Amino acid sequence: MKILKYLIVAASLVCFSSAASACSPFNLILGWFTVTQPLEVVNNAASLPNGTLLAFVDLPYVTGGTGLDSCPGPITLDYTGTPGAFNTMNIGIPGIGGRIYSASSQYGMRTGYLPITGTVSVPNTSSAQWSWGGYYRLELVKTGTMYPGYYQLPTSWMALKINNAVVARMNISTASHSIPLPLEIKQSPTCSLSSSSIQASLGAVPARNFGGVGSTSPAVPFNIALRCSGGDAGVLSSIYVTLTDQRSPANVSDRLSLTAASTASGVAVQILNGTTVLKFGPDSNVPGNTNQWFAGESGNGSLTIPLTARYVKTATNVTPGTANAVATFTMSYQ
């Protein structure tokens, strides 16, 4: 998923008539800012848990404010839209919520995600000036299933409230005339095995060829061949893999257990990615799964993951016989 190239973002305070009879804004002061950095997120978030931060942009310091006439009560920065999960506002885009982080602590306000209420009230005198300023961050968060397509973010984000009455509002847009921010969600490819099973034959290895515990046989190469399709042109999937010991799924070591039908003992199997001996983990595609490793990136087309396998001596004595092992692997697109 990728937000369209360069964004010109403007923020302004828009005055609202207050429902509170004892509070009214005046002398509105406008502020605006420009963001030119591109926003990018992972191309395929299918395996990412809800609550994952997809993209963010830090908004430059904006000065502005609004005059407030006789407005006692706490100051609150809140969203203008419907609250959602993970401190987000419902922005009308399936699977994505938006939230604002405030790094400013003026007027007794703590830092954190909106809504934020200050501990200092606007003075109950005429012509009080509430200065709008600070550093903010706009974040997009995964809240559910996302769908490819072109969208627009809402222009209205932040509200200034006195006693829950909205007296000013901050708009975010691509220009100073409330043009919505564009959002493009692209589809990343997914991959499947070119063959339903993968064989790695280690051949006959004489027991006398092993040295002490931890010694190994020569490594034998094999490949995991994938076919990847269904993605938009130019979009890549980052593919992570977890190998799981079929006989002992809780195994998180770098030694694959022999099958129950094996007659040999004193050895196990190791799988290597280059010079790295891979460890095994639970059968899960959740990002950050135990012993998950990066296998490569792929667009539409083929991806070959080269691996090697070898025996490793695990006991002082090795009993000759058949020595077979089975591992499964689970892919995670991130």
TrEMBL record:
Residues 184-334 form the Fimbrial-type adhesion domain. It is found in: Fimbrium. The keyword Phosphoprotein does not apply. Residues 1-22 form the signal peptide. SUPFAM superfamilies: Bacterial adhesins. Its main location: other. PROSITE patterns: PROKAR_LIPOPROTEIN. Keywords: Fimbrium, Signal. Belongs to the fimbrial protein family. This is Fimbrial-type adhesion domain-containing protein. It comes from Paraburkholderia metrosideri.
